[in-house]
Here is the input.
Amino acid sequence: MADKLDHLLSDYFRGKLDVAIQLRQMELTYRHGTPDENIGGGRKQNDYNNVVESRMIHEQNDPELKRLRYQKSVIKMMFDCLIKSHQDVLIDKYGNKKGWVTIGMDNHIDERTARE
Here is the structure.
């Protein structure tokens, strides 16, 4: 569990979470639906070509995109509630991949305090 959280925080602070969201949006934009197998010779009666609306519906209903956006919003909300010194520790640990000893020395705190 802690490894998943560390990985998620690392992705957030390094910008990989934003890239994953954009990549998923592009996948949904350029996805190919099932081909029309209407070989009957007639025309479809209710075929509407609303590209923008269809894309927005796919983005709003996609569970993967919802999950990524939810994770990003929760981390941002919690990060904004922290005091500046705690934010600096999180940025150093997950954004800059520094060790606990280095973080403690850079922020003028003990290693155990940085871990807490």
